[in-house]
Amino acid sequence: MKKIVAIAAGGDSAEAEISFLSAQTVYDNLDRSIYEPIIVSMTMGYWNALLNGNKYQIDKNDFSFEFDGNRIRFDYVFIAIHGTPGEDGKLQAYFDLLKIPYSSPDHVGAALTFNKWYCNTLLRQLGYSVAKSIFIRKGERFDEKAIIENLKLPCFVKPCSCGSSYGVSKVKYAEDLLMAITKAFEFDHEIMIEEYLPGKELTCGGYRKEGKSMALPITQIIPNGEFFDFNAKYKGDSREITPARISEEATANIQTITRGIYNKLNMRGVFRADFMLVEDKPYIIELNAVPGLSAASLIPQQVRAAGMSLGEFFNIIIQETIKRK
């Protein structure tokens, strides 16, 4: 019997638009001989199964819906929501209560990787190299001069819990720092200011197959602008080279780090680790527990470079997370 798979899409953040693109990729590529996929829109408290051009309200008591007089219950949830509530652990805790398996880390792993500053702090304690940064919570006083003296210019200002480069600024001049901080606070109540690392920007996906952590081919990112911003990620304003043009030693090192983080942080499904390679030394920039899966996203490029179809890869993710559950 086919498994009925909910593809959770939307969410309550600025990344909702990207989430629906990721969900569509999953929907289009799931093997119909094994799965019956249904996209479930989950935005601002309104949860609806999208089926045959119609919307069917989800009963939040058991995550089911009524269709043609029958109660439809899901066997599995493929979480494609970037941002809250799909990437910060809220949905994971909900599905754990309902005992429905899903495609991402549990609520602890999701919440941990969702906040860039907390995650990087833990990675540093585990012995990984990360960029130096300063944390500021909204309403706290900060000293612009001290920040610049500590991190130097240029530097990056980022919301701690927002993806797709929303609210991110590269600050090259001291007079622009306050404006960048103000912009970041429009997207989150916690922000980080991070030192600039000159080098090659790289990213590597990790997953589990037959119980063993695996690393996908590495992608090298060459943005046309100042950094890998929204336009570079989703509107083709960058060059993305997979496999990356780096040494075999650097490739092996980054893939080893990716697999190590996957295990130490108890990741599930597919995740992505972003790096800056500075004179052959990799620095972790951030982790993404629910990476983008749209046609323009990095993970699908890496999957194809590994010689797999997306359908095959998604089947691996679903089967492995069901086993782990």
What does this structure look like?
The chain has 325 residues and is of the alpha+beta class. The chain folds into 3 domains: 102 residues, Rossmann fold (3-Layer(aba) Sandwich); 145 residues, D-amino Acid Aminotransferase, Chain A, domain 1; 63 residues, Dna Ligase, domain 1 (2-Layer Sandwich). It is 32% helix and 30% strand. The protein contains 10 helices and 17 strands. Strands 12, 13, 14, 15, 16 and 17 form a 6-stranded antiparallel β-sheet that branches. The protein has a 5-stranded mixed β-sheet with strand order 4-3-2-1-7, with helices on one face. The chain has a 4-stranded antiparallel β-sheet with strand order 8-11-9-10, with helices on one face. The longest helix is centred in the last third of the chain and has 17 residues. It is globular and about 65 Å long. The protein starts with a strand and ends with a helix. 44% of the residues are buried. About 2% of the residues have low confidence.
SSE map:
Blueprint: E1 3-10, H1 16-29, E2 35-43, E3 46-51, E4 54-57, E5 64-67, E6 70-73, E7 76-79, H2 90-98, H3 107-114, H4 116-125, E8 133-137, H5 144-151, E9 155-159, E10 169-171, H6 177-185, E11 190-195, E12 200-209, E13 212-215, E14 219-223, H7 230-234, E15 238-241, H8 248-264, E16 271-278, E17 281-288, H9 298-305, H10 310-324
Parallel strand pairs: 1-2, 1-7
Antiparallel strand pairs: 2-3, 3-4, 5-6, 8-11, 9-10, 9-11, 12-13, 12-14, 12-16, 14-15, 16-17
